[in-house]
Here is the input.
Amino acid sequence: MNHVYVEEDNELKVLHVAGVKYIKNMVIIKFIGIDDVNSAEKLRNKYIKVHRKDTVKLPKDTYLICDLIGIEVRTESGEILGKVKDVLRTGSNDVFVVKSDDREILIPGLKSVFKKIDIDNEEIIVELPEGLV
Here is the structure.
């Protein structure tokens, strides 16, 4: 990836990538023109944005979190549980935060639970473990 975007003053600023290092569970990116701590500090707590055409090709049954947010989640019997509000990254498996008007459910992102994820039709079908709800 040659460049990314960061929002500044309601505009997207292009940052050109000079290099990337992976240290344990972190990614360290060196941007061209960001050569001192003060310049780097201005980027603290800002989201790095990538154009969809520049995203990596994902393996089968793997999804970008941004594509899952807002998708309706139902049980196999048709009960609507809510919509995906967030996906939490944990050490063992992802956890889907599903919110409806009256409740929030945390659903483990396991193949045994998720029976169907259909991004195009914006639906996720799950088989919840007994006692989860």
